[in-house]
Amino acid sequence: MVELTIDGVRTTVPRGTTVLEAARSMGIVIPTLCYDPGLTPYGACRLCIVEVVKGKRSSLEASCTLPAFDGQVIVTNSERVKKARKIIIELLLSTCPTSKKLQDLASNFGVNEVRFKIKDKGCILCGLCVRYCKEQMQSGGIGFVGRGTSRRVGTAFGDTPDECRNCGGCEWICPVCERACTADSLMNGLCGGCQNYAPVETCTVCIGCSESVGARGHKVY
Ligand code: SF4
Ligand code: SF4
Ligand code: FES
User: Fold this and answer.
1) pTM
2) Does the pLDDT value for residue 187 go beyond 80?
3) Its Gene Ontology molecular function terms (predicted)?
């Protein structure tokens, strides 16, 4: 077991627990986008950052990949953390402005402008779909292709892979494609809108899972 302090409260967790898991076990809410408890942590979105205090200094680290250790001092919601999270949401929105989840996060975190150039890619490269396909379906039909700004999720030669089991899990787990923001126009990348969690459109071709579909339709790779 290891003992650490989170937001001024001491807690004891089994060795190997991450700071995110330790905080959540205490009821502390830390936002995440690329984390799922059933998948290997990936540390891609950085939304889960916390402040790790070391004496008079501190650093911002992703809590989903940060192991808890003895004597660690963590602050989950300092002004520095809140400011950094807002910038991260701005960055994510610039690559995925029609994501309702991101628009709602922006609204909840008080983001009132997107200062980065907007280039809608419909994907925040969180890797949840890739990890789900590989780790839960043992398929590996999809993966990251390309580098740098060309990096994206794809299949070999762009074809439906033979390994695909048509489970739909890659669509289901995607944090940004399940609901599209329905705002007619975005002001500086923000809709500032409704926070209406009702599905915007229901796929008519599937067996009736009632999943809402994103701007690009109900696509299974
Ligand atoms: S639908 Fe195919 S590509 Fe998507 S997670 Fe399932 S097996 Fe993988
Ligand atoms: S398609 Fe969705 S789940 Fe897959 S990497 Fe992009 S944002 Fe993440
Ligand atoms: S949830 Fe930790 S980096 Fe995405």
Assistant:
1) 0.83
2) no
3) iron-sulfur cluster binding; metal ion binding; NADH dehydrogenase (ubiquinone) activity
